[in-house]
Design a protein that fits this description.
8 strands, 1 helix, 4-stranded mixed β-sheet, mainly beta, Immunoglobulin-like
Length: 101
Amino acid sequence: MTELNISGNLKVYFGNELQIPKDAMIELLPIRDITVNDSLGNFNFSGLKSGTYKLRVLDYSLNPIEYDVILENESIINFELIIDAKCEFDKESALSDLKKK
């Protein structure tokens, strides 16, 4: 049986800005494997069998959204994983708060 991979890129909306997070934990269910993205947002799960999986980012939310991934006969590469940190502040808000002390 051929081993398959799920790889892709993670980006997170912080306020209105789409950014690459530092060391975000990404979980693969149902096998409960966890990986951390690299400095470019890339992640990879390897040694998988055909089947249905769910990806979720464990950081930034108490109830992470699950993304369904179906592996059939070939690996999935370039999976774009974009989440919203649901942050009420952006860079401008933070700078304004700093000026106000």
